[in-house]
Specification:
Blueprint lengths: L1 E3 L3 H13 L5 E3 L2 H5 L10 E4 L7 H11 L5 E5 L4 H10 L3 E4 L4 H9 L8
Parallel strand pairs: 1-2, 1-3, 3-4, 4-5
Length: 119
């Protein structure tokens, strides 16, 4: 699984949360580093913040929907709005979470994906 967030504190907290429910996490400080990762097809899913500089989470979702359509992307935001949720889902997000969220909510979201790979 990949965690993409420009905030180092949030990345670290999400990595601990993800590991606490039994998944491994690769951390990326933005969309560009994730997109240059050569093993995207081996990922279980991507947790992506929507508010990031340069390439936004929405843009990342759109790119991944074209390049890796089988890779689920979970959109995350600390600034929830109905319009943002709708745009994320229409862009190809498999789910939309509002930060902060707990382990149970994240685990239920991840269990909804059919593939169960470690990363």
């Amino acid at each position: 699984m990949a965690i993409v967030d420009d905030d180092a504190f949030i990345r670290a907290a999400l990595a601990r949360l993800v590991r606490s429910i039994g998944y491994e996490a690769l951390l990326f400080d933005g969309a560009a580093p994730l997109l240059s990762y050569t093993a995207l097809d081996g990922l279980f899913c991507v947790l992506a913040d929507l508010q990031m500089p340069r390439i936004s989470g929405i843009e990342l979702i759109q790119i991944l929907a074209i390049r890796h359509p089988a890779l689920p992307v979970v959109a995350m935001t600390a600034y929830p709005r109905d319009a943002t949720r709708l745009r994320a889902l229409e862009s190809g997000a498999a789910a939309y979470l509002t930060k902060p969220f707990d382990a149970d909510l994240l685990e239920n979201c991840l269990l909804g994906f059919s593939s169960h790979r470690n990363l």
